[in-house]
Write a structure and sequence with these properties.
alpha/beta, Rossmann fold, 2 domains, seven-stranded mixed sheet, 14 strands, disordered C terminus, binds adenosine-5'-diphosphate, binds magnesium ion
């Protein structure tokens, strides 16, 4: 298909798309939009940065425009992703739309949300916790919500969220259309999704569980206590916006502070910050007020900041899939990007899990045994020298070709 005309979209929507400079549907959009418009449930997968948002947002808006009744609910795992999606929805609806929206996330004032909900919104975007809060208070009704989207599906159907989702679904009509999208889809989640989908169409573009093609990946084997210096030299070497992933909220703050001391423009983003601080940090990063964002995995999924050129995995993610999502913060919509992962001797297990996910048939990288603390009597040394000298830093390029 050459452009969006073939979908027969409403003039309002066609105009919005032109305004957004979306001229040609991406492959996932091309396949998913007609099926969604026909009313099918969808399980959609495509790599990071390939336009999954519009693949569900366009049919959703089209359906709302055509149907004077009913509403749609979009659930996301993080507030920042929710914000991004509601912004796209507003762009698609165009200015002064008769279709009212509500943005329902935790950490924001209830008052503002009550007002939005009183206006009878037909499109609700939010995170599960606060949605449930409103459902239980009676300020949100979903008995006429026949359209449901779970973005980042595998994360949403993960253990942390399923209880919340089950509670939400009890308030929704049983007969509904459900659209699910993600770049990764573990087998157990695909199985679990069947419970929530009705005769779904499987739309899969490219391979799932792969890092987007246009990302140049490096891995640096490094000792834990050398990471910070290496980070600084990486930041000096790299131009353009960088996102650095760390494991803990505490480390995110501490690292941002240290990097500022060392002359870098940087801010931290994590779940312990107040929501208005989170908003300011995200906004500042989008506007390129500062170059380096230090984040926990709340920023791993879905965020679309086109100018991010580099991803640095300072710590490896806890969940292997998040490696793919973190990488996917760069090289979006066909752009180029590069990524580097720091892998220490303590990371053996996590790194093997990532290797297995990306390339199930490859032999795992060998890890040296981490030296045990001296003075430990139960230590059984296998004749290996323990001279306290740092392991030489090894760099190796892992191009996708080589790994495949
Ligand atoms: P995904 O959810 O697959 O990771 P997004 O939906 O966030 O990807 O889209 C990635 C980028 O591509 C965004 O900046 C978005 O504006 C852009 N984009 C999406 N669809 C189109 C299109 N049809 N034409 C041009 N740009 C698009
Ligand atoms: Mg997305």
């Amino acid at each position: 298909m050459k452009n969006f005309d073939g979908f027969g979209l409403s003039p309002v929507l066609a105009k919005s798309l032109a305004y957004m400079k979306y001229t040609k549907p991406t492959p996932i959009q091309e396949q998913a939009i007609p099926l969604a418009l026909e009313g099918h449930d969808i399980m959609g997968t495509a790599q990071t940065g390939t336009g999954k948002t519009a693949a569900f947002a366009i049919p959703l808006v089209e359906k709302l425009l055509n149907d004077p009744q009913g509403s749609a609910l979009v659930l996301t795992p993080t507030r920042e992703l929710g914000k991004q999606i509601i912004d796209i929805m507003h762009q698609l609806l165009g200015p002064k739309s008769a279709i009212k929206t509500a943005f329902i996330i935790g950490g924001e004032s209830m008052g503002k949300q009550f007002n939005q909900l009183r206006a009878k919104p037909r499109l609700i975007v939010g995170t599960p916790g606060r949605i449930n809060d409103h459902l239980e208070r009676g300020s949100l009704k979903l008995n006429d919500t026949h359209l449901l989207v779970l973005d980042e599906t595998d994360r949403m159907l993960d253990m942390g969220f399923t209880i919340q989702l089950e509670r939400i679904f009890k308030y929704m009509p049983e007969k509904r259309q459900t659209l699910m999208f993600s770049a990764t889809l573990p087998k157990n989640i695909l199985k679990l999704s069947e419970k929530y989908l009705n005769d779904p169409k499987r739309v899969a573009v490219g391979e799932t569980n792969v890092v987007a093609k246009n990302i140049k990946q490096d891995v640096i084997r490094i000792e834990q206590d050398k990471k910070y210096d290496e980070l600084m030299s990486q930041l000096y070497d790299r131009k353009g916006s960088v996102i650095v992933f760390v494991k803990t909220k505490y480390n995110a703050d501490r690292m941002a502070k240290n990097l500022r001391r060392d002359g870098f423009e940087t801010e931290a983003l994590h779940g312990d910050l107040r929501q208005n601080k989170r908003d300011r940090v995200m906004q500042g990063f989008r506007k390129q007020d500062f170059r380096v964002l230090i984040a926990t995995d709340i920023a791993a999924r879905g965020l679309d900041v086109p100018h991010i050129e580099h991803v640095i995995n300072y710590d490896l993610p806890q969940v292997a899939e998040d490696f793919i999502h973190r990488m996917g913060r760069t090289a979006r919509a066909g752009a180029e990007g590069s990524a580097v992962s720091f892998v220490s001797n303590q990371d053996g297990r996590k790194w093997h899990a990532i290797e297995r996910l990306l390339n199930p048939n490859a032999a795992p990288t060998k890890f040296e045994k981490a030296p045990r603390p001296s003075g430990n009597k139960s230590r059984k040394q296998d004749g290996r020298q323990q001279n306290g000298r740092p392991t030489p830093k090894r760099r190796f390029n892992r191009s996708k070709k080589k790994a495949a």
